[in-house]
């Protein structure tokens, strides 16, 4: 008789590019989101929520490839054979929402949204298929003062999260400047699209490679220290000199003057430079210096997406990468003006500006700075079980503690009854210790008969036990443990929690 095959077990594994997050991660994220939300609301923004799924055509040309609905996004067909896609960002769904509710919304419409977005792309280190963004947008505001306000709010958000001045900067540029530069050096037309992209990528590397490196990338190309060669844009010397005029100034005013001088007569460059000048003036008048909001012509974002000012929130401190090298942490968010997105759904132009924070990346930065340390939630008070037949008594104790210790405006104090196997009492204390419990409540038959119970301060018990070497002495000391009347349970637990707060 053939031996029975063992059933094949399903391998427990998360899909590539998706991650599980534990309680500490989620609590830290919620604290961070609450801080960001508070900043947004001080500027008059209100929340809105859109679905995870949108009709694929609503995401439109902003998908990587609109002819292949599942390229870059996760898509499916519903019963009506309509293509649906998981949202790629939070801005395209907002545009659809505004267009659908246009007559009912106040204009300008200020909103914020936090939620997961999905990219059907190859995952890698720090690159996920599901991640959270936190966006803020003003729809219906044509003036660049709205863009200046966005940059100021980004700066306020960084500082509210504990990222001090000198550790971040909000860099601001304008797509009109970049598009005008490309036009002025003869890179208009579809046939020049590849060369335009190479020029923009070169500009984006200015903070990394400096003037000389960018010159090489604008010309024949650049070889790095490892010998790898990056092909350049193959511009001529005169065009390279003009493009490098973007970086000629050393201060905000002189930089804008240098841009105007290098591209005198280029109407689009002039228009973009004027908008940057107005953003600079508004920021400085509100008290935001160059150490917080910086005009930077190397900022390149959204080739199809943005139509005016663009911004990027960059963290300036160093971290150690996976190769053990010190590198600048870099961007944690960005945005800009996108006057064409809402208009796709309507017959009228609708100006808009906004920015998006990469929540997971920003959370990693805050951990690196130690800004999320020491804020873990209190572990539960654990009511131990000495007699299975008395579960009703233990549940009554837990309910009494929950009702007394929790209330409106107070930090949550969780209370639970141990629900595992109660045979080995030591296992219950190990469980409480692993949960970070501040207090355990113990009542056996003898204590019940006497109307008493034990409350044990686990942290104090550890401190006291550290100085006791003899096992008998430890049992005699009953470290951190107190016998109290049943009626005094709540007061006894409160004393321990207050004492713990004082020690911390």
TrEMBL record:
The keyword ATP-binding applies. It is found in: Cytoplasm. GO terms for molecular function: histidine-tRNA ligase activity. It catalyses: tRNA(His) + L-histidine + ATP = L-histidyl-tRNA(His) + AMP + diphosphate + H(+). The keyword Aminoacyl-tRNA synthetase applies. Homodimer. This is Histidine--tRNA ligase. It comes from Aureimonas populi.
């Amino acid at each position: 008789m053939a031996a029975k095959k063992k059933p094949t077990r399903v391998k427990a594994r998360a899909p590539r590019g998706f991650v599980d997050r534990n309680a500490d991660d989620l609590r830290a994220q919620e604290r961070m989101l609450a801080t960001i939300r508070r900043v947004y609301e001080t500027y008059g923004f209100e929340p809105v929520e859109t679905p995870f799924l949108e009709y694929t055509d609503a995401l439109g040309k902003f998908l990587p490839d609109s002819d292949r609905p599942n390229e870059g996004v996760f898509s499916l067909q519903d019963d009506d054979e309509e293509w649906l896609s998981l949202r790629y960002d939070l801005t395209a769904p907002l545009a659809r929402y505004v267009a659908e509710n246009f007559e009912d919304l106040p204009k300008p419409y200020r909103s914020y949204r936090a939620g997961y977005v999905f990219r059907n792309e190859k995952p890698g280190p720090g690159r996920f298929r599901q991640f959270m963004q936190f966006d803020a947008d003003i729809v219906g505001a044509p003036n660049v003062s709205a863009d200046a306000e966005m940059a100021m709010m980004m700066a306020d958000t960084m500082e509210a999260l504990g990222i001090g001045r000198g550790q971040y900067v909000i860099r601001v540029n304008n797509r009109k400047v970049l598009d005008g530069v490309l036009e002025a050096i003869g890179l208009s037309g579809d046939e020049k699209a590849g060369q335009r992209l190479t020029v923009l990528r070169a500009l984006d590397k200015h903070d990394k490679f400096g003037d000389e490196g960018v010159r090489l990338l604008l010309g024949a190309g650049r070889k790095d220290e490892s010998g790898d060669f990056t092909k350049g844009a193959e511009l001529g010397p005169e065009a390279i000199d003009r493009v490098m005029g973007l970086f000629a100034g050393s201060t905000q005013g002189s930089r804008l003057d240098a841009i105007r001088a290098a591209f005198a007569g280029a109407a689009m460059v002039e228009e973009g430079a004027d908008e940057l000048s107005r953003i600079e003036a508004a920021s400085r008048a509100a008290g935001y210096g160059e150490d917080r909001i910086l005009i930077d012509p190397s900022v390149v974002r959204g080739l199809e997406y943005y139509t005016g000012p663009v911004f990027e929130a960059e963290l300036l401190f160093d971290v150690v990468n996976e190769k053990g090298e010190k590198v600048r942490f870099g961007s944690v968010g960005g945005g800009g003006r996108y006057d064409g997105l809402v208009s796709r759904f309507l017959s009228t132009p609708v100006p808009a500006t906004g920015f998006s924070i990469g929540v997971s990346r920003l959370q990693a930065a805050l951990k690196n700075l130690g800004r999320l340390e020491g804020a873990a939630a209190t572990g539960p008070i654990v009511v131990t079980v000495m007699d299975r037949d008395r579960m009703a008594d233990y549940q009554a104790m837990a309910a009494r503690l929950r009702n007394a210790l929790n209330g409106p405006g107070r930090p949550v104090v969780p209370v639970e009854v141990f629900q595992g196997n109660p045979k080995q009492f030591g296992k219950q204390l190990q469980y409480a210790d692993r949960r970070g419990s501040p207090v355990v409540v113990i009542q056996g038959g003898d204590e019940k008969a006497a109307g008493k119970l034990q409350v044990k301060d686990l942290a104090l018990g550890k401190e006291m036990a550290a100085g006791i070497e003899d096992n008998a002495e430890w049992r005699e000391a009953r470290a951190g443990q107190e016998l109290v009347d049943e009626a005094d349970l709540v007061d006894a637990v409160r004393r321990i929690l207050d004492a713990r707060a004082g020690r911390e």
